[in-house]
Write a structure and sequence with these properties.
763 residues, eight-stranded parallel β-barrel, alpha/beta, Bifunctional salicylyl-CoA 5-hydroxylase/oxidoreductase, seven-stranded mixed β-sheet
Length: 763
Amino acid sequence: MTAPGTGPHRIAVIGGGPGGLYAAALLKRLGPDREITLWERNAPDDTFGFGVVLSDETLGGIEHADPVVHRALQREFVRWDDIDIVHRGHTQTSGGHGFAALGRRRLLEILHERCAGLGVDLRFRSQAPPAAELAATYDLVVAADGVHSATRDAHAESFRPRITGHRCRYIWLAADFALDAFRFEIAETAYGVMQLHAYPFSHDASTVIVEMREEVWRAAGFDVPDPADSIDQCAKIFANALGHRPLRSNNSAWLTFRTVVNDHWSHGNTVLIGDAAHTAHFSIGSGTKLAVEDALALAACVEEQPSLPAALAAYESERRPVVESTQRAAAASLRWFEELGTYVDQPPRQFAFNLLTRSRRVTHDNLRLRDPAFTAGVEEEFGCPPGTPPMFTPLRLRGLELRNRVVVSPMDMYSATDGVPGDFHLVHLGARALGGAGLVMTEMVCVSPEGRITPGCTGLYTDEQAAAWARVTDFVHTASPGTAIGVQLGHSGRKGSTKLMWEGIDQPLDHGNWPVTAASPLPYAPGVNQVPHALDRAGLDEVREQFAAAARRADACGFDLLELHCAHGYLLSGFLSPLTNRRTDAYGGPLAHRLRFPLEVFDAVRELWPDDRPMTVRISATDWAEGGTTAEDAVEIARAFVAHGADAIDVSTGQVVPEERPEYGRSYQTPYADRIRNTLCVPVIAVGAISSWDDVNSLLLAGRADLCALARPHLYDPHWTLHAAAEQGYTGPGAPWPLPYRAGSRTPPTGRTDAPKPRLTLG
């Protein structure tokens, strides 16, 4: 074993894929006296898959770390810029993407040669000893043994892996000709939707991946032990893409992708890299890229850090955020292809744009730089007036026309007295109305004193409260003409009678608690929150009438839109989720019964709300908890509300049970809005970590949302929408500056910009 404070001398590498080989080469190059042994159970020329794609970023790291490998790769690469998307007889081409690929076998040969030249002991057709044995005699054990890693499985209690299967089957194949672009092709067959992903990796060969949902795969008869017939059938289905050429296999089999996540990447002196540590769906071309980048980072950290434990900690600290970001993008791409059937009816250009931006890494602004003509065509098809970004196109809901697609999301301020909104609410909502958003939403306005979350929540159950709200709506309509203001009505249910957020979120009051009600007598946090009273018939009727009375007052206040809050574990949400509704009467059990009371409330409100003014419903599209509301349930919940007259669905998630495990990330809730919109063809409001105007434009143009609601960005900048217009050079009617603010419509200078530029650089 190595002495503390010195680098590892004897290194074992398990697995001869690109990650393991490159790690061995780098570690040997940095320490020529190191003894490095690599075990690979297959022969040197055995490989699975055909081509690999590497980004310019990854190639830059290779060039800096090992120019010899970089030069060898440069001689082999096939490069191209275009992506072709073929669907229903239309081919949409987007350029400027910049790919570089080569054959996987040739990549391995280059790395074999480099390792051998440096003196790495390569042992092919050799099963590596167990990692525990190697760890006893080697200073460092690098486990690069792939998605089915035996090392990871043997030490699962330390690495704590989580492996998730998915809903599509796919197969890696090749065609003996070079495509002239990266090609996505969609085939709508008698069995269901299939897709082809294909790209060239040499002057005479292309990788071809065929993918489809499991049920489509079975219906097509592809679920047989020998895939030969299915490969021939795929060649016929995608004959136009292949020029009627055959597809060839390399021990190819139909697979389901497995997402691998590990809580820890090292155990003692053993470390995971590549697919052993993490996987990301092939549709963003990241597997080899991540493995090579892992090798680069591991070698650098071993070189830089004073001890092996410090090096392994630094390696994981450096790589984990990058990997997690890539996995989020890959998950979004994977889900997009799983739900491909919901997009096939989109217009051709929008469909292509949607596919290109599916992972959220390519955006509207990014595509405008890569291919202005393609993006302009998508904008025209969407209906953008000339020179108008998508976010500033109007949208009509019943008699209300919103001048742009930006919504100030409902945000509880906990600043009312006895439910009465005061000067704080006037300034808070008024400032955001002046800031340019098309629609400004109130916080959840409670329909009764016992329906408040906290003593600081606003209400609409007294005339005094109504008068205060009328003051707010009058200011918005007068000071910011064209801005709409909406009210969100709700009841706290079992999450009521708690402290102000900054005093202890979801914690019961120290004194003055009021009784809470819910669908079932289940406390929000057992042992912390009080047990709610399950509403009986009289209680249900009373709550319904409270909502109706609040709607009457909202009408009199002059609100332009009304939203019914059926999300986040509050009363109506509590009826919808099977985790919080355990009733055995007509309001519990199957989803149709759990929907009954929220729909009764909706109907009562809709009957009183003016017919020309829209109503929306906010739902939690998933509980992020086992046994809770699913994405499929959310579609049916939305379908029911739309059938009863909802004009749009505001799609949020979670906050229903404290044991939830959300998958946080940029725009992480939008796939649920997307699914509802494209399954039901209904307008949706997307929420959840949407933070940039580029994200808003991308979501709208892709057809994943009709409106985008932003909360924290509007807390950071009340004039977020006006600033978004200024940054895009937009001055049209979708974002007019208030006259007193017009002088601020240009970014102020921040320092001297006229300094003379250098004329010479002397070496």
